[in-house]
Amino acid sequence: DLSLVRKIGGNGSNDGQFHRPKQLTTDSTGRVFIADFYNDRICIHDSDLNRLRNVTHQSISQPFGVKVSRDRLYVLCHHNSPCLHVLTLEGDKLHSLITLGEG
After folding, report:
1. What is the pLDDT of residues 56-71, one digit of tens each?
2. DSSP reduced 3-state for 66
3. What is the chain's Cα-based Rg?
4. Cα 55 to Cα 40: distance, rounded to the nearest angstrom
5. Measured CA distances, 14 to 9, 29, 43, 51, 72 (Å)
6. Cα separation, 14 vs 43, whole angstroms
């Protein structure tokens, strides 16, 4: 059986709130990274689920996937066509891989 352990945030666009969170992942230190779809950001929380910061960049639009490595964020976004952005954990863009839609 599953049970709710802790709820964080609520619906909205302020710090600590989410608007259609799509995916979360953790890193080796236990930090939690949440793709906040309609707020166009990645929210980072510590291992106790306290908000640390938001990562935003002009290229992050409607993120629906997030993965993290030791020093990189991989953000899958959808803005006209799916694309993968690679950013530093501070939000500096390193590069993008763009997948164009068919037709």
Report:
1. 888 888 999 999 998 8
2. strand
3. 14
4. 9
5. 9, 25, 11, 12, 25
6. 11
C-alpha 47/C-alpha 83 separation (Å) is: 29
Euclidean distance between CA atoms 64 and 16, whole angstroms: 18
Minimal CA–CA distance to 51: which of 6, 9, 80, 84?
9
Element counts in the chain: helices (H) and strands (E): 0, 8
Q: How much is the pTM?
A: 0.85
Answer whether 55's CB lies under 8 Å from 35's CB: no
User: Where does residue 34 rank: exposed (0-12), middle (13-18), buried (19+ CB within 10 A)?
Assistant: buried
